[in-house]
Amino acid sequence: MRIWKLALSRNRELCLRNCTVIFFLIILCSCKRRNLTNEELDWDTICVTATAYNSVGYQTQDNPRITAWGDTLKPGMNAIAISRDLLKLGLDHNSKIKIEGFDSIYLVKDKMHYRWRNKIDIYMGENVDKAKKFGRKKLNIAYIFHKDTVAK
Q1: Rounded to whole angstroms, how far apart are CA atoms 81 and 92?
Q2: For residue 13, what pLDDT is reported?
Q3: How far, in Å, are 63, 75, 150 from residue 78 at the CA level?
Q4: Dihedral (CA of 8, 14, 15, 17) sign
Q5: Are 132 and 80 in contact (CB under 8 A)?
Q6: What confidence tens digit (pLDDT) does each residue in 85-125 have?
Q7: pLDDT digits over 21-33, tens only?
């Protein structure tokens, strides 16, 4: 009788372990990355102060090509830095941005100092003259945000 109970106990333990593994495999396989549809995405527009910056040593504290998120900037990239208050609007690392007067889509690659508000800095490689010529402007930017699909 004792051997039968021991065998039954081992079978239950083995069955429980197998069921647990199968359960986690099902969960893991069902967690596919969702592709958001156009109904779940929308562009929002805000007016910001836009300036330009370069990856030159005298404009930064450390390595001029490394951003606050750890990305490496290369001349020719369509990158911007954003003031940290814009993070609350849904702009985040690698967010896609359309800038008034520019044809390309820009990616958020850097964060600015806490003192700046409602501001973007457009990366212009090592071309300091181009950045100075750009100056400071009030521009509209459009950014993608995720609609609240639960509230429908």
Answers
A1: 10
A2: 67
A3: 19, 9, 34
A4: positive
A5: no
A6: 999 998 999 999 999 999 999 999 999 999 999 999 999 99
A7: 565 545 545 544 4
